[in-house]
Amino acid sequence: MKIILLLNNDIASNFALNLLLPSLAAHQVQVFLSSKVGGNSARPQALQELALFEQTGIYQALAQSKTASAFKTYADIRQQYPIAIDTLNDINSRAGIAKIKAAAADLIISIRYGVILKPPVIALAKHGVINLHSGQLPAYRGVMATFWALLNGEKKLATSLHFIDDNSIDTGDIIGYSSLAVQQGHCYLWHVLSLYIGGCQLLSKAITGIASGKALSTTKQASQGQYYSFPDAEQVNRFIRQCGALYEPQALIKLLTEHHDNEQISR
C-alpha cells in the first residue's frame, strides 16, 4: 500500500515511527510532520519547557548516551530508509491538499499530528484515515489525554485507535484499544511513550488487515465523553505535586533504547 503518516515533530511521534518501521517494510511510506500541536496561545512555563525537551532536549540527551545508537531520529530515518519526511503545517490549504493528493495514499495514519484534518483531505485516502490517540475514548478526548488521566487518578491508561471521518475531534469509530497500568515513580512523558508500544502493535495489526483486504471491525463511541485542552499553570503545578515530573531524561533514554527494533524497510 501507499501510506501517508501524519506525525508531529517530537520524540513521541518519532518513537512511534521507530516502533512501526518493521510493519511498514512492505509499503511505500511518506511522512509529513507538523511543527507543534495546538495554536499560538500562551502556555504555562512548564509546558513550554516540556515542548522544548520533546523537540530538542531529548535528542541532545540521546546524542550523549552510549546506549542510544539503535534509536532512529527523523534525520536517521531520512538517511537510512526509503521514506520521505517533510514538514506540512498547512495540510488543509490548496497547496497542502495537492501534496496529499499527489501521494495517492491508500491509507493515512495520524499520530499526534498538530492540525485538525478537514473533509477534502480525509476524502483522499482509499481506505480512510485512522488516528492513534493516547487516551481512552470517549472519556479523554482532546490534547494531553495521558496528563489528564494521571491527574484524575486513573490506575490504567489507554490508547484508542479510531477512524477520522470528519473534522470533529476524537469522535470516530473505534478500531481497538491498548492499555497500560500506571507506574508510580515514572514521569508523564514516560507514560506517553510507553503507551505507544502497545498502541503501535495495535496499529500494526490494523495495517496488516487493511493491506490484506479485510474490513476492520469497529464500534461506535458510546457517548461524547469529555474534551480536554491544555492545562493551566495551577493544574500543571497540581500534577507535579500529585504525580511527579513531566519528564525525566535518564528514564526516557532507557525506555527509548530498550524498545527499538533494528529491522529495516527493504530498499
TrEMBL record:
GO cellular component, one term: cytosol
Keyword field contains Transferase: yes
InterPro entries in the record: Formyl_transf_N, Formyl_transf_N_sf
GO molecular function: methionyl-tRNA formyltransferase activity
Keywords: Transferase
Formyl transferase N-terminal domain sequence ranges: 94-182
Protein name per UniProt: Methionyl-tRNA formyltransferase
Origin species: Colwellia chukchiensis
